Here is the input.
Amino acid sequence: MRRAVGAIRVSRMRDASTSPEVQEDKIKGWCQLHDAELAGIAVDKDVSGKGVSPWEREDLGKWMSRPQDFDVLVATKLDRVCRDAMEFFRLIVWAKENKIAVVFIMDGIDLSTPGGEMAAKILAVVAEWDWNRIRENTLDGQQKAISQGRFKGAIAPFGYRQVKETRDGITGTWLVPDENLVGIVREMVARVTAGRESVASIARDLNQRGIPVPADAHRIRMGRPSKGAQWRSSNIVRALRSRNLLGEYTTNDNSTLRDETGLPIAKAEPLVSRQEYSDLQKALDKISRKKEANRPSSSEYQGVIVCGGCGKPYYHLLSHGKGTYRCSSVDRGASCGNRSVRADVIREQLDSSFRTAFDGMPMLRRVVSPAEDHSEDIAALTEELDNLTGNLARVKPGSTAAEATLRLIESREESLQALRSLPERRERVEWLETGEDLTSVWDGLSDAERGLFLRDHEVKLYFRHPRGSDDVSMLVMWGRLDEMREALASRSA
Here is the structure.
């Protein structure tokens, strides 16, 4: 009795005829009809037939690597295995080399016969053409919607809701701020930017207040019951990192999608200003650095040590169970020739230098009052107005396009006037007394906390020890700790 493996693939968009259950029933029916033992079924969900070969699929790939364990590969249709003609021809060669029969039930094709192989080759080319046609039509539709500012997606970003309406003669789905969530978004932004509490404590507070996570907020809007998912640090950071807060269309890597003129493509009214978004990202970066430093596996002084030869950072590695730091130029194929240094040598040098430089010096806390600067928003609006004015000159006066452009120009001019009327203020730095001295604070820190302390104060240690030389030098630049010392000196002057 021949041993058969069934191949089931389900893409993200499907109808009932391609459901896993229907495919499995047909495969089992084929096995009963042809007296074959079903050795296993490989089910790959949310996988495209184009771009992911049978060998790379999570479930089917395991069977493809063990051809000795079965005799027949069975699928309902050819496109359930692949839609790429070249991948299909590779499948034919693989099947012949491993003496595997390949059967596509609904296509009536058996690759073990010459006629079946020829028909399958023709069908593979047609399948690839069909996939390309579908993809082009889909992308054309998405591109048109994006260029018009319409929303293309299943779930609105957190803080927004979908509305179906007609704007400037175009009917479609648009995003508008969700009046029930905008206040929550702005609260999260303000609390994280202030830096007075952890993201985890913010998550606990949101859960206690019953604030829904983005997916549950969407379910509630759709009239469906909430699943009761919880806020965590990870989904708060994900929501606050997204440029959706600026109302911009983004790519998969969160980069801004721009039109042919280079301007960001807007999909909605922004929930925060560019300055607020910039301050928020700085606060999140600081949280990320602190989290990294507190991990047991992280290096204490990575980010502090710099190569005195080439200026590249030193990174931490383990050698024979002992920690060392090495210039990153080694991994880039062009070593600068500066030698590695043991972690304990760096630790002792920094400790000794710190005590010498700051023994008995009071500890001050740096407090920054952020600047109020609207120049980025003003520049973006000014550029957009220039482009709109240029577009107006190219359309017929009195036409629908001209009227829509004039309305946009009027709206942008009002926004620009409002921005220019807002007060601007330079960043202000104050040094406040803490009642502690620096060496006492230093003594109370672990090695990992000392590394974070030095990075937060932008301290750099330049290490120089060329190969073939006995000359070793280490120079510490104290960064903001020098600013602290200058602040103290100005008070006593």
User: Anything to note?
Assistant: Residues 137-142 have pLDDT under 50 and may be disordered. The longest helix spans residues 114-147.
